[in-house]
Amino acid sequence: xxxxxxxxxxxxxxxxxxxxxxxxxxxxxxxxxxxxxxxxxxxxxxxxxxxxxxxxxxxxxxxxxxxxxxxxxxxxxxxxxxxxxxxxxxxxxxxxxxxxxxxxxxxxxxxxxxxxxxxxxxxxxxxxxxxxxxxxxxxxxxxxxxxxxxxxxxxxxxxxxxxxxxxxxxxxxxxxxxxxxxxxxxxxxxxxxxxxxxxxxxxxxxxxxxxxxxxxxxxxxxxxxxxxxxxxxxxxxxxxxxxxxxxxxxxxxxxxxxxxxxxxxxxxxxxxxxxxxxxxxxxxxxxxxxxxxxxxxxxxxxxxxxxxxxxxxxxxxxxxxxxxxxxxxxxxxxxxxxxxxxxxxxxxxxxxxxxxxxxxxxxxxxxxxxxxxxxxxxxxxxxxxxxxxxxxxxxxxxxxxxxxxxxxxxxxxxxxxxxxxxxxxxxxxxxxxxxxxxxxxxxxxxxxxxxxxxxxxxxxxxxxxxxxxxxxxxxxxxxxxxxxxxxxxxxxxxxxxxxxxxxxxxxxxxxxxxxxxxxxxxxxxxxxxxxxxxxxxxxxxxxxxxxxxxxxxxxxxxxxxxxxxxxxxxxxxxxxxxxxxxxxxxxxxxxxxxxxxxxxxxxxxxxxxxxxxxxxxxxxxxxxxxxxxxxxxxxxxxxxxxxxxxxxxxxxxxxxxxx
Amino acid sequence: xxxxxxxxxxxxxxxxxxxxxxxxxxxxxxxxxxxxxxxxxxxxxxxxxxxxxxxxxxxxxxxxxxxxxxxxxxxxxxxxxxxxxxxxxxxxxxxxxxxxxxxxxxxxxxxxxxxxxxxxxxxxxxxxxxxxxxxxxxxxxxxxxxxxxxxxxxxxxxxxxxxxxxxxxxxxxxxxxxxxxxxxxxxxxxxxxxxxxxxxxxxxxxxxxxxxxxxxxxxxxxxxxxxxxxxxxxxxxxxxxxxxxxxxxxxxxxxxxxxxxxxxxxxxxxxxxxxxxxxxxxxx
Lengths: 659, 284
Prior knowledge:
Chain A is an alpha/beta fold. In chain A, about 25% of the residues lie in helices and about 25% in strands.
C-alpha cells in the first residue's frame, strides 16, 4: 500500500482566505493510501519545505501531494524537496488550489473548498500510480541565434559574444541598425542616435564570435533548448558580398529612382540597388528586384557595367542555410501604427500631416532634406507645428488599448529640436497624459515647456481641416475647458508602436506566445521577464512590449546573461515526461508516426522475441516534447506518456465514480 | 417601376417645397414610384426625442407600421426623418420590451420587415444615373457635397467606412459629369435647429461650412437635407460674408442633368439664386 503525504498550503490568505484548509486536510486524511495530511501558511518557504522533508522521513512516505499554486510556479521547488528527502522527485503531484480554485471562486467559499478537496483527491489518486522517473540529459550547442539586428539584437549579440559564445545575428533588412538608426537625437540627453549606435554596429561586424546574416530571415525552427535546428533564408542580394568593395558607384548610376525609401519613412525615394543608409553594416548594397529595371524589362544592367569589382550577380538565388543553436534571442522590434484609419486626421491623405518618424528623418542631418524641416505639400519651412500624441495608443476604438511608452518623450524631443532648428517656430502638443517616468524624463518635458516655449494642451484633436495654405487644427483644452483652433503649417502624429507584421508568424515557428496586442509573452511578467514559455528562447526589446532605448539595452543585456547561464552548462537536464513505446504491443501502424507534430517518432525493425523481428515505433527521446498526441492516436495502447500514463489518468477519472 | 412608401416629412411641402418638387420629377424619370404613406405623422425629430423616449420611438414607428402595411420599403428625403425612422427600426428590432410598449401605444405591432432608406439610397439602388437619362452632363461644375450629421452618423444607423470623409454623394456628383471637390467640411454640423433659438451659433457653424466650400473653389454646395439647406442657403446675407454660394438639393442637380427646367425644380425658391452660375456653365 502506498504511503502518501498530503500538504496543503495557505499561500498566506491567497488560498486560505477562500478555501477552508482545515476541511481539506480532514477530507484528505480519509483518502486511501494517505498516511498523513497537514497544512502550513507558506509551503514553499524554507520551514514549509522542511516540514515536507521531515514528514517524509519520519513517516516513511513514498509519495507526496502538495495542494498549492500552479505547478508552473512551484512544481520544481517541491520536486527538489521530495528529492532532498530521498525520494524520486517525480513521486510528487500538485493540486492547483490557487489559480484553479481560490483565485477564481472567491465568490463562493463553500464550493471552492469542495473543489479544492476534489482536486486533492484527484492528485492523490494519480500519485498512487506514479512511477519513479529518471532525469535525462542532453548536450548543448554552445552557440546562440539572435533574430533582429536593431539595438536590442545588437546589444544581446555583443554581450553573448563577450561571454565567449558564438552568435549568429540574423537581420531581415540589408543592414543592421534597426529603428535606432533612423532616429536623430535621443531623449533626454540629446545624444546623436547614429553617433552612439554606429560604433556598436561596427563592433558587431568586427567581433570574431559574431556571424552576421543580413537580408535574411528565419524560416523554420526545430529541436529544443540546447539543440535548436534553424533554417535561415538568405535572400538573394544579387551582389557578391565577397567581391563588393562598397564604393557606391552602382547606386549612384542606377537609373531606377522611384521607389519610396523605407528607411526614410517614405518621404524620399531610393534606387533599385541601394544600401539603406550611408553607415550601413555591412556596407554592401542589395538589388531590389521589384524596382530593378533589368528584372522588369530585361534591359539596363547599368550597375554591372559600372561596378569596378564585378560584384553584381543577377543569377544569385535565395539560399537556405541550416544551423544549430543552443539558445535563441528574439529581438524583432516594432512597426509604427498606420494612422490612415484616423478619419479625423485625414485618413493619412493630407500631405502636411506627417508621422513622428517622418519628422525624425527630416530633422536628421543625414536625412533626405539634409536636416531641414520642409512640409511635404510645398517645401515651406513650418512655423506653427501641432503635435498630436496617442495616435494608435491608448485608443480602444482602434484596438490599441496600450500605451506605447515612448511617444510622450519623442514628441517632447522633436518639439525641442524644432525650436532649436527654427527659433521662430512655435509648437503645440495635444496630449492625454504626460508619461515621463524615466530617469531625467520629467525634467526634460518641463524644460521643453519652460525653456523652449512649447505649449502643451491637454485634450484631443477633433479634426484637421485642409485650408488653402495651412491646416486648421480644432481640438479641446480640457484644462481650461476651451475649444482650441490652431492655424498650423504642419501636424505631426505621434504614432504608437505595434509588433512587426511578421511577428505572429515567427511566434508560431518558435512556439512562443503573444498577447492580445501581438507582443511576445514573457514567461513571467515580473520574475521571468526575458524568458518565454519555450525553454531556450528569450526576448529582448520592443517585440515584447514598447520600450525606450535604455530599457531595451538593459533588457538585451539581461537576455544575454540568461543565454550565458544556459550555454555555460555542461549538459542540460531535460524532463523525463516523454512517450515510451511498448514494442510487444505495437502493431507498426504508424499512426503515431504521422500524428507527432515534432517528428519525434521513428520506425525501426526490432527483435521482439527470439527470431521474431517487427517494424515498430520508437521515440526519439531528445526530440519528444511529451505532448501526448501519439498516445491518443495509438490503437493498440502501445504508447504511454511517462508521468501521465493511462493508468494514472484512469485513477483520476475513477475518483468521480465514488459518487 | 420600383415602388417605395414615401415619407415626405413636414418640410417637403413647406420650407423645402423645391426639394419635394425635384424629388418627384427625378423619381418619376428614374422609374421610381413614390407612394405617399397614408396618414403619415411627425417623425419625432428634435422635440420628441429630447422629451420622451417612448414618444421618440412611437412616432416614427407609426410611420414604419403604415409602410409595412403597404409592404414597401420606406423612403425619406430628409436626413432627420431618416435618422429617426432608422433608429426606431433598429431599437424596435433589438429591444423586445420597447417593442411591446410601442405596440401598446399604437395598438398594433411593427414587425420590422421593411427596409428603411434615405432618398439618396433609393436613387442609388434603383435609379441608374449612368444611363441615357443624363441628357446634359454637368461638365465643369465644381460641387461641394455636404453630408451633414444625420446622413453619416451615428455609425450604427449609417454604416460607412469613411465616416469622416464619406464619398457616396461625391460619387453621385461624378456620375452626373460634375466634379466633386475635396474639402474638409462635409460632415460638420450646420447648427441644425439652433437656427431659431441661437442663430449666432448657426452663423458661425454654417458660415464655416460655406467658407470651406468657397476655399475649395466649389461653385455650389449640394445637400440632402432640408434643414441643412435652410441653414446654408437662407442666412448667407445675414452672415455678412463677402461672397455667396448657391446651395442645391442633390435631386435638383440630378434634375439639371436630366434637362428639367429651373422653375419646375423650384430653383427659384432659393435665397441664393443659382441662375447666374448655371448660365455661366451653360447648364440651363
